Amino acid sequence: MFKGKSKGFKVAVIGLGALVVAAVVGILALGLTGSATKQQATDAEMTYTTAQAKEGQLTSSTLLTGTVKANEEQYVYYDATKGEIASIAVNVGDQVQAGQTLVTYESADAQSAYDAAVRALNKVDRQIYELNTYGVTVAETGDAETDQEAFSTAQRTVDGQMQDLQDARADAAAAVDKAKVALDDANVKSTVSGTVVEVNRDVTKSTTSSAQTVVHIVNSGSLVVAGEMSEYNLANIKKDQEVTITSKVYPDKTWNGKVSYISDYPANAGEASVASAGTGSGGSASKYPFKVALTSELGELKQGFTVSVQVNTDQKGIVVPVAAVLTDDDTNFYVYTYDKASKTIKRVDVEVGNADGENQQVTSGLNAGDIVLADPTMDLKDGQEVTVNDKTTD
């Protein structure tokens, strides 16, 4: 009796369990169906904003770092080939003008060579003078034909001698010029006007390759900011662009300047070539020297300061909202254009330029007047029908 009841109880429990499972499955199925339906409804109801591609101007800024240096300065290095230094004509703090003698080397040998070259030139000049004055002398015989033949022969001889003397004079004049250069080299002159900031009177002949500075002159009234920019900045920064300069030493002050020079040749070309050859890759980005001329008062700005240079770039072109441009891999960019008649979108690949906080420059792929989705999502498809705010397409 007990066993029968037990068996029946188990059957009842199993049947109840099956009903519970079926109910749960049904509820989940209804839930999933409802969720899918809700998602479809959400997609169908989503409204996008559109914008018109238009001609516009955007401002972007590039931040560079540089060092304040003298635009005009001169280093006079010790030249052992000229011999010993006889005298240094300036002291630290002296104001010098371009063309002023700074350093004089022992020049006895150079002076002797120059004097000898001048004497040789003078000697040739005397010979030319004598040949011009007394060159053709013919003893006349009284016979016109004989005398004429003798004169012609003598004239040919004089002409040949004169040509030889002219050649000798050209060689002598070249020797004088060469000796004069050597003599002038004994007197090193200033190439800039400025202040003497360094004088070294203890230089000596050295077997090392390091250069020894004898005199250093700078023009402190002509400071520039010098630095190096990467190859990626070359497209956006041009000569004569205006810049703003700041220094951490005086954070509340700014200076104005203008880009005065950008090198066409990278400063680290040799290193980049070695890196590329050794690694098989492109190596680090090339660096191009640049200079910024200061256009405002120097004030507290001093030579040697490290400063920040902000270059503001204004560019005109086709612009769209920044959010309108999508990318798959930060290399290929695209937008969705909107056709009002069919209410569908089309994926259009574009090339981009600079951007500011609101607008993105599009350099190819769009024309002024094209309508694009201003807020596209990554799940949109080419040719998809979408709902948009009509006001933005008027």
Automatic annotation (TrEMBL):
<protein>
    <submittedName>
        <fullName>HlyD family secretion protein</fullName>
    </submittedName>
</protein>
<feature type="domain" description="YknX-like beta-barrel">
    <location>
        <begin position="223"/>
        <end position="311"/>
    </location>
</feature>
<keyword id="KW-0175">Coiled coil</keyword>
<keyword id="KW-0472">Membrane</keyword>
<comment type="similarity">
    <text>Belongs to the membrane fusion protein (MFP) (TC 8.A.1) family.</text>
</comment>
<dbReference type="Pfam" id="PF25990">
    <property type="entry name" value="Beta-barrel_YknX"/>
</dbReference>
<dbReference type="InterPro" id="IPR058636">
    <property type="entry name" value="Beta-barrel_YknX"/>
</dbReference>
<dbReference type="InterPro" id="IPR006143">
    <property type="entry name" value="RND_pump_MFP"/>
</dbReference>
<dbReference type="Pfam" id="PF25989">
    <property type="entry name" value="YknX_C"/>
</dbReference>
<keyword id="KW-1133">Transmembrane helix</keyword>
<feature type="domain" description="YknX-like barrel-sandwich hybrid">
    <location>
        <begin position="74"/>
        <end position="218"/>
    </location>
</feature>
<dbReference type="Pfam" id="PF25984">
    <property type="entry name" value="BSH_YknX"/>
</dbReference>
<keyword id="KW-0812">Transmembrane</keyword>
<feature type="transmembrane region" description="Helical">
    <location>
        <begin position="12"/>
        <end position="32"/>
    </location>
</feature>
<dbReference type="InterPro" id="IPR011053">
    <property type="entry name" value="Single_hybrid_motif"/>
</dbReference>
<dbReference type="InterPro" id="IPR058637">
    <property type="entry name" value="YknX-like_C"/>
</dbReference>
<feature type="domain" description="YknX-like C-terminal permuted SH3-like">
    <location>
        <begin position="318"/>
        <end position="388"/>
    </location>
</feature>
<dbReference type="InterPro" id="IPR058639">
    <property type="entry name" value="BSH_YknX-like"/>
</dbReference>
<dbReference type="InterPro" id="IPR050465">
    <property type="entry name" value="UPF0194_transport"/>
</dbReference>
